[in-house]
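Quick one - first record:
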Amino acid sequence: PPKVENLEIVEVDAENQLTTLRWQRPLPPTNGHITGYTVILSDPRFSRGIEVKGHEICPLWNNYH
């Protein structure tokens, strides 16, 4: 599928080790539909993915996930 649009780091909270991201849906794929996104967290010691459902919309910004 095409890459997401307008990927941004909204906030970094070093004390609580939290990062807030937002992005807009990519152009529609030519051979299916988007069911979700995987955000991969990694550092030199580990890596893991967090799943975000394709229909979840951010309540703070219109048209953002």
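second record:
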Amino acid sequence: MIPALKRIFLFSVFFLIFSPISTQENEENRTEFLRLTDSALQTAVYTLGNEDSNIKIKIIGVIHVGDPIYYREILSIIQDLDYLFYEGIRLNNAIRPNVASFTGIQTEESEKLDNNNSVKGIATFQNEIARYFNFVEQGDYLKPQENWINADVTFNEFLVILKKSNLNLDILTKNLTLDAKSALEEDSEETKEKIDESDKHKFILKYKRKMAKYLVKSAEELCYDEEMRIPREAIIIERNKVALSFLNSRLFSPQHLELGLLYGAAHLPHFLEVLQKEHKFQIHTIEWLDAWSLKSN
């Protein structure tokens, strides 16, 4: 398996599977949706408008585990929206906020899904990372409201998409633990530093920064590398099409509406591309939210 593909599910723990972008775009035209500063790992919120309509759209990229204040900031952004279209792979009536954590409404059917070994492995790893860094899970803070509309595929549809692309949930998740370890053992001067393990706070902050750097690097590979074209097109774009089909029904409403898309951060480039090119929306503002503090733990 190619190295970048082996890293997919480590990346998906935080961003949900793959990230789309046209392979013809050069670096100057790349959409920025995730960035690392001295103090934080950040995700973007794009606000778009269209001169010919009364619609405003907020595209909110999210990481599925992060600092509590991060999700409180997202809640403050989405509370005044008329409709929020959100990511959540479904098992019949059971809605899952993301494939990685499988948190959400517990039913008899959803418990069957939780017994899937691949799902268990992903969820366990995500929980370990959350505990280690004192993170919380997205599903604990962002709970569907009356004006939230689930705009995603079902779990069976997701498996069909994987199969058509010769991708397999079990095979991909086998690399999870190994790749998490390798993320922190890359051949760089920083990873060669001797960390004083007696200083637990210092150690955790260094560990967190390395993980954040690795996630940004993986994001860029998944968004722009040619070897990621098949999973990028098959999984992210197919699911984005579903989300946009829900959004389309309200794009040309005569009413003044504020709509939102709440999806994994790596979905943003394709959403923006479609809304700008096909629906003539323009970016009005970009706001950056601190998902992980890199100064405290």
